[in-house]
Specification:
Elements lengths: L1 E8 L1 H9 L4 E5 L3 E5 L5 E5 L9 E4 L15 E4 L2 E4 L2 E4 L4 E2 L6 H6 L1 H8 L13 H12 L3 H11 L9 H16 L2 H15 L5 H11 L5 H12 L2 H12 L5 H24 L1
Parallel strand pairs: 1-8, 1-9, 4-5
Antiparallel strand pairs: 1-5, 2-3, 3-4, 6-7, 7-8
Helix pairs in contact: 4-5, 4-6, 4-11, 5-7, 6-7, 6-8, 6-11, 7-8, 9-10, 10-11
Length: 275
């Protein structure tokens, strides 16, 4: 067994480890391994190259998981240790990472964020699926029109190929925008309703990301993006956007399309108030 220490993990990881009795391997990639338990909850074990996320356990070594694991590798969980094939992952000294951005601060700065976003060309973030569906979802979320948003979500959820279909990625981005443009109580209810509608209609991994967004959680790349928006640092904003765009074949672009589209729909609806 090769022993590896954990650098950091999200709170949901501790719950997953405590509540899983029959986990299995869901996916194995170069820098990530996804596990799923009997409750259909996902845990991602990732290298520092991937970094923190709402259900991520970040190990300290930059290994290639394919060299140690396959779909049939055994899994066992002990106190402060996860045995995964020939890997013994120690969690005792892991730092707890909070996946929830400072939505209150972001909401208070939403007009400045809009002004900062406006110059960025939207053509870079065109979704890979029907633009009309994304536009309608963005408008519904911006208007907090829950019946309309849920009807469109039902059409978008699971639409597209891959482990996180394009429709889901667009929903995720739009939901993250909702947490900024709306007061917390409105955003929380809207996000929960949308993601609860979408999650049963898609893949296990995509459902995990959607449910996290519904709780107001996001991955490290979005945290960095939000920090750049708050600081109105153009170089940091461009850098964080490029990193999100690099996620998956189109996942990052689809999520950014949902995010920016929702922000701009909100601007159109409220322009007399913020002019």
């Amino acid at each position: 067994m090769q022993s590896i220490n954990t650098l950091s993990l999200a709170p949901d990881v501790n719950d997953w480890l405590a509540n899983s009795r029959h986990p299995r391997i869901l996916h194995v990639f170069d820098h990530a391994c996804n596990l799923i338990n009997e409750h259909r909850e996902v845990l991602s074990i990732v290298t520092p190259q991937v970094g923190n996320g709402p259900f991520n356990l970040v190990i300290e070594d930059d290994i290639f998981f394919f060299e140690y694991l396959n779909g049939q590798s055994t899994i066992s969980i002990r106190a402060d240790q996860l045995n995964l094939g020939t890997l013994a992952i120690n969690t005792a000294n892991a730092k707890l990472w909070s996946p929830r951005p400072d939505w209150e601060r972001l909401h208070a700065s939403r007009e400045n964020i809009l002004n900062h976003l406006t110059p960025f060309p939207i053509t870079k973030y065109q979704p890979s699926i029907l633009n009309s569906l994304i536009s309608n979802l963005s408008l519904s979320i911006a208007a907090a029109d829950i019946p309309s948003a849920l009807a469109i979500t039902f059409q978008l959820a699971g639409l597209g190929n891959g482990l996180t279909p394009a429709g889901d990625d667009s929903i995720l981005g739009a939901v993250l925008a909702a947490w900024i443009i709306h007061p917390l109580e409105v955003a929380g209810y809207l996000a929960e309703q949308i993601t609860n509608t979408a999650a049963p209609l898609t893949t296990s991994l995509s459902a995990a990301w959607l449910r996290s967004a519904g709780k107001g959680e996001a991955g490290i790349l979005w945290h960095q993006f939000f920090d750049a928006l708050i600081s109105r640092d153009e170089i940091a904003t461009e850098d964080s956007i490029e990193k999100i765009l690099a996620v998956g074949a189109t996942s990052g672009a689809d999520a950014l399309a949902g995010f920016i589209g929702t922000f701009r729909s909100w601007a159109e609806l409220t322009s007399p108030k913020i002019s």
